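Students often ask what a holo structure prediction actually looks like on paper. The answer is less mysterious than it sounds. You provide the chain, you provide the ligand, and the output is a string of discrete structure tokens encoding the 3D arrangement of the protein together with flavin-adenine dinucleotide.
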Amino acid sequence: MGKFQQQDVVIIGAGIAGSALAVALSGQGMSITLVEAQSVAAPGLPDVRDVHNFDTRVSALTPRSRAYLDTLGAWEAIAAYRSLAYRHMTVWDAQGTGQIDFDHAEVNVPELGHIVENRAIVSALLAQVATAPDVQVMSPALLTSCSRLESGEMSLALDDGQTLQACLIVAADGALSPVREMMAFRSREWDYGHCALAATVEVEQDHKDTAWQRFLPSGPLALLPLPGAEGRHYCSIVWSMQEHLVDDMLVLEDGAFCTELEEASERCLGAVLGASKRFAFPLRQRHAVDYVQEGVALVADAAHTIHPLAGQGINLGLQDVSVLAEEILAGHARSVSPGELALLRRYQRRRKGENLTMMAAMDGFKRLFEQQALPLRWLRNVGMRRVDQMLPLKQRIMRQAMGLG
Ligand SMILES: Cc1cc2nc3c(=O)[nH]c(=O)nc-3n(C[C@H](O)[C@H](O)[C@H](O)COP(=O)(O)OP(=O)(O)OC[C@H]3O[C@@H](n4cnc5c(N)ncnc54)[C@H](O)[C@@H]3O)c2cc1C
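The corresponding structure tokens follow.
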């Protein structure tokens, strides 16, 4: 490989968003490079099911995201590995009697969504990338600098000394996006002072393909159903709480942690029998003021990070990817450079509104459930019971959350 390469599109980051974009752009006569800091050598997915063998990072994919992964040719491999179709969702308030139950039958769909381990999604997408002769993967390779040349082209340097030039660089490099920083994109941030604790747990009772979410005064706790095996039941948990509480939870001995979780979940699935290693993710809501500059586009977490309470992060991210790919390919068909600002602005216009609406809704939810004042607690409980009885409103909420809205 030479010391210098000219590419149409260079994508930084081979997480779900970057890998999906590489697949979406392949096969259309463009030269594409996918750069990833970690090694992406086919890792092989473990088949054993116990709390230590699931990926701690899972995503609740909407039917819209599943359909898009299907279009990219990745869904079959994900389904053949393991995923769980969840059909119900129960949301309740720890401080009162408010509860809402959502059921797939109420919106006439076979399921509300699928819970899938992130590594299964990435692995299925990278298997598609491996069959695309027009996509070159550079990994492990860390982007160390990027800048715009006078010609408008982007110039990139990697830690192994290689340099690239591209018409467009796409930042799919996650919430802390180095590209966003290097290119001085401005963003608005809200630090919640909260962390999300994620782990896989084994529970006593069958989860009945239900996603459970309990709003505690310290933050929401979600138990997402995972595929079981040999009569054993597993869930992935995402437990948001203040930073100092997370530190205590991380160092707790396993048995004591399971007891804490049992209490916090109101034993909705009986006893918690075991837990994997726990990980903490700082929670910060962040939204880039602009998603694009000439020759640069931000997608998914690089453009927006959202509270995980409604599991919408990568669902929004995959829609960014879908729209950006559509605009780039439409431009390519008219011989328009993928880095052209007018083309990239169309992507920004089509995505910013939906992302902002979802972020505002999640922020509002989180703040509402934090309120300790009695009138607000009363209102919220009455509100939840009311919504639960109003089918048309519930249907609207469900369709919106499923990306069908
Ligand atoms: C606890 C938790 C639970 C969540 N649950 C859900 C859910 O149920 N549903 C949902 O939709 N979303 C969920 N999310 C959000 C979701 O995980 C993210 O939106 C998604 O992973 C973002 O994907 P991405 O591809 O944008 O970024 P990432 O997955 O962060 O990937 C970025 C990639 O870029 C690479 N990279 C970074 N810097 C460089 C560099 N300089 N050079 C080369 N490569 C680089 C990294 O190595 C990485 O592989 C959750 C998030 C958290 C924290």
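The chain has a mean pLDDT of 90.
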